[in-house]
Design the sequence.
């Protein structure tokens, strides 16, 4: 499902791409978004509807009973010390290497272009708009992960590993030992990835907690590898919950003021009990102390699918959609306060087409839930199990302006494009180890190896 312009009825202005939304693999593990001028549209940020004051007070007393005799007492003097000892052993530093490829010169990423202009220099892949590529060089990046199973299973961000040919993991800053990791699964939409190393020993594990009961104001700590400073710990509080930033993730974030920097991506956000409540993913580069983490409840659901099939299978009905506003409602002959999602295009032979839905139908309910905007419908469809049936309510207006409410049952399908996006195993280069533990391998030259490394010609 994709969001499209309402071509025959209203021409929706395209939202400009935030000027700086940089995947951390370019600088090493952070994700930024920033507007470079006052004319650029701010990222879409929404907050949960505030509770009525009496209800908020009642919930506070019920969920967090206050012991008035202890108000004003300091936290235990060694709280953060003990937390560091508990969590840091399960945190790993990730280094990735990406070999240059000619294909990268043919399709430039505007986000990468802006990053290069901001920091100077140009990454391998050629200038904007094509043209001759500069001398090929390997690209290296940094990130963070944390071990969730003692056999070496590690959670990190997708943008840390998605372009990597070789992924190296360091467990301890006191050791130069690097373990090569393989990608078990990854998902670009939620920016999560699962990798694995074979350390030939049982490893310390981070404890996964719950995020459903996280409250604004809770003390938290962020762990990671910012700018290559491995096993760094920063502290702060939960600043907000349920932050929706559609430009970078389909899951509402936990916002924190615990310092997060490039290289922290994929690291754990931990509460004072030592439980992981989120995965550090992005920062707002325009400000200080605005970082975002993916709630661990969502992470656990995604990780289970990644380990099972290497990707996330999401429902798909084959429509382009647009949120109904007053202009669209008026031109469709619907009341101005109509809430719903207008279909702008129906993919032939997809689930919606088979169920009889047409362009300009306005969906108001999906699987028993009201949908008031395109994001809500996309999430509802994506979260519905493939092969199951869902009831859809929608308005249809005929050529004579007659309006009727209809109901259809849709059998949820799978987007074939998503089915092709399975996790690609990390490139394995075989060869003979160099002597004296120099840390590299050598192999005879071959045309296939040259293609993999982006080398044209060269001595044999």
Sequence:
């Amino acid at each position: 499902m994709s969001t499209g312009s309402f071509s025959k009825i209203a021409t929706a202005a395209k939202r400009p791409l935030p000027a700086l939304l940089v995947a951390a693999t370019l600088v090493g593990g952070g994700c930024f978004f920033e507007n470079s001028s006052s004319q650029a549209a701010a990222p879409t940020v929404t907050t949960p509807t505030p509770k009525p004051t009496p209800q908020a007070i009642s919930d506070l007393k019920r969920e967090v009973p206050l012991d008035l005799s202890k108000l004003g007492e300091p936290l235990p003097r060694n709280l953060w010390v003990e937390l560091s000892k508990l969590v840091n052993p399960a945190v790993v530093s990730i280094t990735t290497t990406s070999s240059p490829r000619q294909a990268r010169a043919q399709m430039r990423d505007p986000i990468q272009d802006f990053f290069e202009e901001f920091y100077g220099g140009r990454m391998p892949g050629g200038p904007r708009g094509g043209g001759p590529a500069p001398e090929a060089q390997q690209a290296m990046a940094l990130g963070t992960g944390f071990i969730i199973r003692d056999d070496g299973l590690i959670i990190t961000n997708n943008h840390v590993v998605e372009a990597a040919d070789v992924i190296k993991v360091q467990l301890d800053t006191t050791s130069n030992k690097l373990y090569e990791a393989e990608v078990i699964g990854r998902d670009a939409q939620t920016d999560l990835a699962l990798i694995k190393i074979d350390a030939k020993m049982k490893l310390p594990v981070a404890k996964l907690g719950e995020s459903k009961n996280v409250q604004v104001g809770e003390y938290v700590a962020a762990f990671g590898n910012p700018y290559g400073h491995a096993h760094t710990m920063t502290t702060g509080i939960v600043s907000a919950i349920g932050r929706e930033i559609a430009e970078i993730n389909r899951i509402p974030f936990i916002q924190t003021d615990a310092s997060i920097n490039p290289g922290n991506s994929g690291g754990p956000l931990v509460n004072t009990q030592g439980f992981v409540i989120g995965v550090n993913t992005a920062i707002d580069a325009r400000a200080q102390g605005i970082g975002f983490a993916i709630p661990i409840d969502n992470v656990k659901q995604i990780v289970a699918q990644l380990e099972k099939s290497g990707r996330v299978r999401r429902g798909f009905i084959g429509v382009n959609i647009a949120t109904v506003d007053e202009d669209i409602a008026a031109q469709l002959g619907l009341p101005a306060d109509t809430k719903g999602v207008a279909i702008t295009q129906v993919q032939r032979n997809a689930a919606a087409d088979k169920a009889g839905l047409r362009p300009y139908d306005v969906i108001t309910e999906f699987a028993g839930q009201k949908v008031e905007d395109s994001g809500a419908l996309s999430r509802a469809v994506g979260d519905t199990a493939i092969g199951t049936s869902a009831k859809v309510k929608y308005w249809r207006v005929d050529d004579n302006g007659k309006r009727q409410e209809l109901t259809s049952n849709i059998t949820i399908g799978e987007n074939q494009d998503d089915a092709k996006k399975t996790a690609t195993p990390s490139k394995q280069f075989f060869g003979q180890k160099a002597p004296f533990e120099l840390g590299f391998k050598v192999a005879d030259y071959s045309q296939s190896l040259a293609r993999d490394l982006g080398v044209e010609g060269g001595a044999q």
Remarks:
- The radius of gyration is 25 Å.
- Residues 391 and 409 are 5 Å apart (CA to CA).
